[in-house]
């Protein structure tokens, strides 16, 4: 019927790793959340989502555009953003601060 086109990644392969990072970064009990629990229910505001994005960049050694921050609403969203960045050939990070911290001089 149609040509085979590459499917957009859904992030499934990264859900467990992102969940572990979220739990470690925000001191959340993994038994109390799942991949669809909104970060807002965990007390994670936009500033803390920036921190998570930076943590993902460091952990996976890539730069992710800060414009993706609005998609980090839960673990599944964060995993999907990561999967898409990896599939798109996200640039490996240079030594030093994560990309979004270098760009925005956040601490």
UniProtKB/TrEMBL annotation:
Highest taxon of the lineage? Bacteria
User: Which InterPro entries does the annotation name?
Assistant: ACP-like_sf, PP-bd_ACP
Domain Carrier residue range list:
12-86
Q: Which Gene3D superfamilies match?
A: ACP-like
Alphabetical list of Pfam families matching this protein:
PP-binding
Q: What is this protein called?
A: Acyl carrier protein
**UniProt organism field:** Amycolatopsis coloradensis
